[in-house]
Amino acid sequence: MTNTKQEKYDRAYLRMAIEWAKLSHCKRKQVGALIVKNRMIISDGYNVERIINYRANEIKKYDESFIEKLKLKMPEITYIYSQNSAINFLKVIKNYQLETLWMNTNLMCIGEKTSSILNEIKWKKIFLFNPGEEEFLLYKI
Fold this sequence. Notes:
By secondary structure, the chain is α/β, with parallel strands linked by helices. Helix content is 38%, strand content 18%.
């Protein structure tokens, strides 16, 4: 699939999540979500009653072919949703010496604490956002 076609899908999914959020009864925490796998929506909804903490195992070593493919086509946008994600993302960048390649990627961070972890790398564009504002950031780029 071409990048422009994927971007159209991504924007459509974000718009759908925003519409789900509007259906929420709670005016303070309006959250919509979609789970998409292979361009198919497998779940959707709004306002989770309780946030479930989960733990993911850190990937210590990535497949070299993955890293080589990544070097050839760096993403235009990367969303970082937590401090732990930022720490692990920074480890990957440093371990595989990808600092200079990520310079032109638009970095979207959910808050200042998250972005401060990644400030070691001199990103050209860092955007801060609140939950639910992801789609609006796409139009700023």
